[in-house]
Design brief:
Largest sheet: 5 strands, antiparallel
Shape: elongated
Oligomer: single chain
CATH topology of the largest domain: D-amino Acid Aminotransferase, Chain A, domain 1
Number of domains: 2
Number of strands: 13
Distance between the termini: 18 Å
């Protein structure tokens, strides 16, 4: 007889039901004492699939927008400002590029920053409105991209941050972490046809006139899976700053000159499963790899979830 419940609330934009079913099958295989139920977020699945009266843990990769469970504990994605993420990471000693907040009513002193800084919305994503600028030309302004406008509604606070030079063409890494256990990681290399950046101050003529993109993603970029224990270890540590957020995507930069690693975002909202999300499927198909085959993601996720249920269900 089951002793615990695992309730998985899914959103097809994050994870498909068939994908949840595969994870649930592994949970049943390794933990027959756990009864697993699936609900689609925002639907009436809860009426057709009631949860037994047992200690329960609910896992939702993203924020729960529909009916919330009435028993047990709920772990879900949560939208955080970048400034909130950075403050939490710094409290536990994780390397974050030096940063400050620039608002419509408060302009920071940038005198101690290097001559070029990264400017990006405190709330945003997908590289929208992320630019490199000469620090003396940083001014508050409304966002320009449709995504940033939608998220901030023209009331935008900006992060001003030290630039991390990752090489001639920008490179970044993403590590997905489930309750502190790294599940998969990939490398993103910017389009090699973009203007090369020969050194960290090679922006003359490009950044002075309003900035250029320094994000690694975008048209022409290349995604590839990567197995790097150092990246995984940093993601594991970073997740300690967010113990109640189940799934994060830790974005990491490596300084090309010093080799030092920096966390620039954790994507606490949780849209980072990517095995079956539309974005994730497209990336895997386009670049010819399979995250689950490369990292055994589903089987490992099932073990993590089973361990969490047994230790944290209520």
């Amino acid at each position: 007889m089951p002793s615990y419940n695992l309730l998985v609330i899914y959103n097809p934009q994050i994870i498909e039901r068939w994908d949840c079913e595969r994870v649930a099958e592994y949970v049943r295989e390794i933990a027959p004492d756990i009864h697993t139920t699936l609900w689609r977020d925002g639907s009436s699945d809860w009426q057709k699939c009631p949860v037994p009266a047992l200690p329960t843990l609910t896992f939702s990769p993203g924020p729960v927008t529909g009916r919330r469970p009435t028993q047990g504990v709920v772990f879900e994605g949560r939208s955080l400002r970048k400034s909130e993420e950075y403050a939490a990471l710094e409290r536990i000693g994780v390397n974050v590029p030096r940063w400050t907040l620039y608002t419509s009513t408060s302009a920071p002193d940038l005198g101690s920053f290097d001559r070029y800084v990264v400017v990006k919305p405190d709330v945003g994503g997908r590289g929208a409105d992320v630019k490199i600028k000469r620090k003396g030309r940083v001014r508050w302004s409304a966002p320009t991209t449709d995504l940033a406008k939608h998220v901030t509604r023209d009331s935008c606070d900006w992060i001003v941050q030290e630039f991390v030079y990752t090489g001639v063409h920008p490179v970044s890494y993403r590590v997905a972490s489930l309750f502190g256990e790294p599940l998969w990681s990939w490398r993103v290399q910017a389009d090699s046809g973009r203007r090369p950046l020969r050194h960290r101050f090679d922006f003359a003529g490009a950044a002075d006139g309003g900035g250029m993109s320094i994000v690694s993603s975008g048209k022409g970029c290349v995604f590839s899976p990567i197995h790097d224990p150092t990246l995984s270890g940093l993601a594991r540590t970073a997740h300690q700053a967010f113990p109640d957020i189940p799934l994060i995507g830790v974005d990491i930069l490596r300084d090309a000159d010093t080799g030092r690693l920096y966390v620039i975002e954790v994507n606490a909202i949780g849209w980072t499963w990517h095995l079956s999300s539309p974005v994730g499927r497209n990336i895997q198909q386009q670049f010819g790899f399979d995250l689950d085959a490369a990292f055994q993601v589903r089987r490992r996720a099932a073990r993590v979830l089973a361990d969490q249920v047994r230790s944290r269900a209520a």
